[in-house]
Amino acid sequence: MDTENLYHYTSAPALLNILNTGYLRGTQAWHLSDGSECRHAIDTLREMSPALRQNSLWRSVEDTLLSVPRYVVCFSKARNDPHQWEHYGSSGTGACI
Questions:
Q1: What average pLDDT is seen over the chain?
Q2: Fewer beta carbons within 10 angstroms: which end of the chain, N or C?
Q3: 27: nearest Cα among 42, 11, 16
């Protein structure tokens, strides 16, 4: 596994878009294959400081985190991962950049 580089698996049409625009397009975090990752982040913050639950400022931040769309771009340390190819590289017909 390459530890110095990060790779992005994508479909051929998305690769063309990346090359034409120079940008990676993010996905709404709640639409990831495992949307529970977003909830897990908030739960972890709560566990770090139980006093946060009582804080009105925290409740406002939490409401914002849960309601405002967040976008993510995913990367892998693995250059040739069968799982990544299958799910994000169009079953091996896409690209790894």
A1: 83
A2: N
A3: 11
Rounded to the nearest angstrom, the gap between the alpha carbon of residue 23 and the centroid of all alpha carbons in its chain is 15
Note the pLDDT tens digit of each residue in 50-93.
776 777 787 787 777 777 777 888 889 999 999 999 988 888 89
- Structure-token pair, residue 63: 């409401």
Query: Two tokens at 68?
Result: 């405002």
Q: Are 78 and 84 in contact (CB under 8 A)?
A: yes
Two tokens, residue 50: 């139980």
Question: Is the sign of the CA dihedral 30, 34, 38, 39 positive or negative?
Answer: positive
Tokens 């406002």 label which residue?
A: 60
